[in-house]
Amino acid sequence: MGRVVVAVNIDAAIALAKKYRYSLRIVTLEGELLSPGGSMTGGAFKNSSNLLGRRREIEELEQTCERYLKQAETIQTELSLKEAIVQEKKDEAAVLKRAGQKLALEENTLRVTISRLEEKKGEIADSSSDLVREHHQLEIQAKEISESRRSLQTQKEALDSESEAAAETVNAHSLLWNRQRRKKRQTASSWRS
Q1: What gap in Å lies between CA 156 and CA 126, rounded to an integer?
Q2: Burial class of residue 33 in the structure, from the number of CB atoms within 10 Å of its CB (0-12 exposed, 13-18 middle, 19+ buried)
Q3: How far apart are CA 27 and CA 180, in angstroms?
Q4: What is the distance between the alpha carbons of residues 30 and 45, in angstroms, rounded to a whole number?
Q5: How many DSSP H helices and E strands does the chain contain?
Q6: Which of 24, 34, 30, 23 is nearest to 4 (CA)?
Q7: Does the pLDDT of residue 58 top 80, yes or no?
Q8: Cα–Cα dist 41/44, whole Å
Q9: Where on the phi/psi map is residue 37: left (φ > 0), alpha (ψ -120 to 50), or beta?
Q10: What distance in Å separates the CA atoms of residue 127 and residue 119, rounded to the nearest whole number?
């Protein structure tokens, strides 16, 4: 009996049936029945001679109507609760969606940072290779300079030896020249005397 609606009269029943596209079972207070799909069956037999039976039937219908109204209230309360739960779930979903978007943004930021660091790593590796090459060239130049220094030291030592020999020769020539000069002076002075 979950989808049965009680209407005041047949006109109200037809309006409700149209509104809900003939998907509900509708009963009027006079006993007419509109089935899902639109078929209609007749109402109650009116017998005015039996007032007690009629009164009992009215009381039964009022009780049935009251029962249906209580069911409708219960369904409405459940519906309100479920709508509140749905709204709560929607709010939770929105919070989760925002958190997911935030995480996606952080992930993208980290990927960009990693990409930049990889580029810097490549640049540092290239720079390191350049530095290793430059270091190797400087070592070669240092060896060449060291060899040139040794060669110059050898040449200096040779020049120093030659210079000493030349100085000794100059000293020897100077002594010889001084002797010869003295001799010439002595000879000249002996000629004057």
Answers
A1: 44
A2: middle
A3: 165
A4: 9
A5: 2, 4
A6: 24
A7: yes
A8: 10
A9: left
A10: 12
How are strands ordered across the β-sheet holding 25-28?
Answer: 4-7, 25-28, 33-34, 40-41
To the nearest whole number, what is the mean pLDDT of the chain? 86
Q: Going by C-beta distance under 8 Å and a sequence separation of 6 or more, which residues neighbour residue 123?
A: none
Are 31 and 22 in contact by the 8 Å Cβ rule? The answer is no
For residue 100, the model assigns a pLDDT of 93
Tokens of 18: 């149209």
The single-letter code of the amino acid at 89 is K
129 or 109: which carries more pLDDT confidence? 109
C-alpha torsion sign, points 155, 156, 162, 165: negative
Q: How far apart are CA 130 and CA 107, in angstroms?
A: 34
HEC per residue, 18-86? HHCCCCCEEEECCCCEECCCCCEECCCCCCCCCHHHHHHHHHHHHHHHHHHHHHHHHHHHHHHHHHHHH
pTM (predicted TM-score): 0.36
DSSP 3: T
* pLDDT in the model for residue 106: 94
